[in-house]
Known about the structure:
Number of domains: 2
CATH topology of the largest domain: Nucleotidyltransferase, domain 5
Mean pLDDT: 89
Largest sheet: 7 strands, antiparallel
Number of helices: 11
Oligomer: single chain
Amino acid sequence: MPSLTKTFEWLLKRLAMSEQRITYRYRLFPTRTQVEALTVQLSEACRLYNACLQERRDAWRINRESVNYYTQASQLKEIRAHGDLSLANFSACQDVLRRVDKTFKAFFSRVQKKQKAGFPRFKSHTRFDSLTFPSYGDGCKLIQSKLRLQGIGLIKVKLHRGVEGKIKTVTVKRECGKWYACFSVECEAWPLPDSLERVGVDVGLSAFATLSDGTEIENPRWYRAAQAKLRRAQRKVTRRQKGSHRRRKAIQLLQRAHAHVKQQRADFHHKISRWLVNGYGLIAVEDLNIKGLASGMLAKSVNDAGWGTFLDKIAYKAENAGRQFFRVNPNGTSQTCTCGASTPKTLRQRWHHCLSCGLSANRDHVSAQVILQRTVGLTVQASSSIAG
Length: 388
């Protein structure tokens, strides 16, 4: 955990930033001919990815040589000149090489940390679903309600909201048989009016979140609600013959069912996080090891709640709004009273009763108050440290 002074200085620095990067996602409506052209472009990008991966593997196995991004990028002109690659945009080709380089760097990083390494693998053309144009205007341009892509033409876009800021990159993505355009935009932050309200947030499973003021947010359990539908869709895939057209259709239906659950969860997270950021000037949460919690007997429930993405949404919205957002040490938040006394409880015990001060309240409510107390203490200490 970083030192207190450095954490507070980092927060002030981030709040002082006038620009940030956000992504706008829009639905594309390509014609049948354009869908075929897009599919070909993705297949070519996948072929380039696999060829770069093969070159790196062979160079190390045969000659014990390492191949980096710059070595492979220097070969692109010659490859395209000989007609061995029909990927239309040169910059998009470079981005594929960067993906391979990033994959290998992540692999070596895991090896150094003695984690499960997972050597980079080849990709199937059916699973290579996105193509990035790293420079707006080079092979991609938004013209009114249409997106012009090199080698594809003008594609209809549903601009349900305006693109605010300077577009930096454009990514075309295939998802569940539908096509999307993701615009990475550099824009100015829009701070909200100052608020003196403070809140501690304790995420849970019985209630999705409990605030320090006693407010409980119900856990919608989207995945559990959709399990019956998902089970039927999965059985349909299992009954189909592998490689058949009917199996591909069944897989697409299963993908859409999962995507619907994902979108419901994301919509819920966005609404709750926006409500918190709009209403409170300081928001405190626990710095949970969510990956560890999602690997035990409560894995399905923890993954269904999606705490990680929810807290990330609060973080970036708070940064854009100029709010203070803190992640505090979670050790003992549920085993401590607001008076500071230790009150051990098992997971089944949902009610807090302190023998020292006599406080009797909902366990999650008390935890949220303890989280807020720790944050207020941190801000006071950090302010005095910086002033000193």
